[in-house]
Fold each of these.
Amino acid sequence: MLDFECLGNRQNIKNYDVVVCGGGPAGFSAAVCSARAGARTIIIERNSCLGGIWTAGLLTWILDIKNKSDKGLLKEMFTELSEIGAGRFIADGVKFSCDVEEMKHYLEQKCVAEGIDVLFGASVCGVKSEERRIKYIAVNSKSGIEYFSAKAYIDATGDGDLGAMSGCSFRSGDAEGNTQPMSLIALLCGVDVEKVRLMNNSETIAGNNPKKNLFAEMQRAGITPSYTQPTLMQLSDDGIFALMSNHEYGIKAYENDKITKSVINARHELYNTVKALKKLGGAWKNVHLVATAEQIGVREGRQIEGVYSITEHDVFEGSCFDDAICDVQNRVDIHSPKCENGGGVVDVGRISKPYQIPLRALIAKDNDSVIMAGRCISGEMYAHSTFRLTGNAVETGSAAGILAALSAASGDIPKGVSFSDFKKMQNRIFG
Ligand SMILES: Cc1cc2nc3c(=O)[nH]c(=O)nc-3n(C[C@H](O)[C@H](O)[C@H](O)COP(=O)(O)OP(=O)(O)OC[C@H]3O[C@@H](n4cnc5c(N)ncnc54)[C@H](O)[C@@H]3O)c2cc1C
């Protein structure tokens, strides 16, 4: 644990009801619901925008939204984003696609309207815990080290930074600790929408395999992508696409030196790929690499151990729970941790069933101040590969925000908050 006792001015600790660490899909949702439940709330975010993978990660396809888009925060977001022309349901209606810049602006304005404080360029870098409770956290930014305390804390860092710093046990990847590869996303414009139809993952054409076609096209250009199932996702009618075609292997979400090398490597691969495609002409004649992501896409960070941990059994048997807060419909989606065969998706040969996430999977087992949201909630590798999508991050974030606000107001630890009080507040907020 970081020794920061001598750093900064701890006489000046800033107090909140709820501190949300990380402002990605889960952190944003947590903060909105915490504020609506009456808690004075702050988001501490290391980037200079909200949205995490949606914005800094350049991936604005919101997935696993079936049974969720007609209620709660997702419904509200889809309605508002559609109204301002910043997003739309695509293909079969099971995906919602947004414009990256519109999304950044939308999320910020939503926080402003809800009275949520936001701190950018600020990384949670230390935790002072005593007797299973957090006393305060340390945050590193251009202002130096600053200290924040709260009645409840939400770990929405994706990687489980807060939980780990608070001394919580966690797992990462499979039983041997192997984690799935990371991918850096690129944004392309000038792609000929008609000519790439058969390579476009947004198109549902019977019998067509867009990833296979794109792979063949890249090989025709002299490129073998490090991810052999490259994916082209259409974000607008005028030819803006997100491209996911690289895999970086053997890196933990908390190994910054390796992450840096992988970002440099992935960006180099993307530049070479787009250059080679452009040389082909045709659909790619006017292609332009507009941006590469600020934040590399991390599939697996830490799963902080919860009061309940979602198991392989839950995924394949379709478990239901009395304290359910989210329906997961996604299939098992494990990108092979090994780079053999381009690290395609592991075929587990078993079909997962829709199952539910219980509120207990959001409550840390080892620290009574920590509530998790998004991809760092408690679950085994199979479970994580089904629940990590952002439709579920919004739902777990919303639940974490309500739970944190109730805990802050009552003084009860999160696992002491009754589920009926939770449901009452959820109904009050969303009807
Ligand atoms: C390559 C890739 C493709 C994917 N494709 C899709 C897709 O198409 N659709 C979909 O729905 N999901 C997709 N996913 C899954 C999804 O992106 C993630 O699981 C999702 O990001 C979960 O949201 P989150 O809020 O938990 O985490 P994140 O989006 O990672 O957000 C975490 C936030 O916390 C901040 N943070 C981290 N550490 C700290 C710290 N110490 N202090 C302060 N702030 C911190 C980060 O900057 C970030 O803003 C994909 C994931 C990857 C990696």
Note: The first strand starts at residue 14 and ends at 21.
Amino acid sequence: MELVNFNHNAQKNIDQLYPTGAFLTAGVIDDANTMTIGWGTIGIAWSKKTMVVMVTHSRFTHQLIEKYKEFTVTFPYEDMKEELMIVGTKSGRDHDKYELAKLSLDQGQAISTPHIDCHGMTLECKVIFKNEVSKEYLDSAIYDKRYAKSQDFHTVYYGEIITSYIHDKN
Ligand SMILES: Cc1cc2nc3c(=O)[nH]c(=O)nc-3n(C[C@H](O)[C@H](O)[C@H](O)COP(=O)(O)O)c2cc1C
């Protein structure tokens, strides 16, 4: 494990995030869940290093972020398209996704939430702010395309990046 700055490999990580995806893990060992995210922002808010993620209310992961108020984001540095597709299409509410995708978790460094055990870079984040996407303030074309039918809005979580590192699979 090598500690790196939060913006290390930023371009590579953003290229991985969209459109292929990164792993978002919430909860604690034995009560954890991982889903795929494609939308997110790495930057600065309130002078703090932050990762902003957008999680739809219907996701099982949403419940766990609400419960534990922290999360990890792991950008894989090996080909994990299949694993990302599995955890990005099945819900942890009905499936053991770690079993299905043959993935395992590794304990974090600074927070209780673990991260996906792979070759990649992980950001450990504590939620410092959240807001709800609402029709009132949203561009109407985005509302029509993303939410008009489902009414399944995203919560936007601002995670302060507590530590960040590159790791290999155990
Ligand atoms: C490439 C990709 C990107 C995704 N990005 C997001 C995202 O940014 N936010 C979100 O809420 N869901 C996103 N999803 C959908 C969730 O990963 C998916 O609904 C997942 O099954 C939720 O799992 P859960 O119910 O176990 O939390 C994405 C899926 C894929 C395949």
Note: The two ends are 10 Å apart (CA to CA).
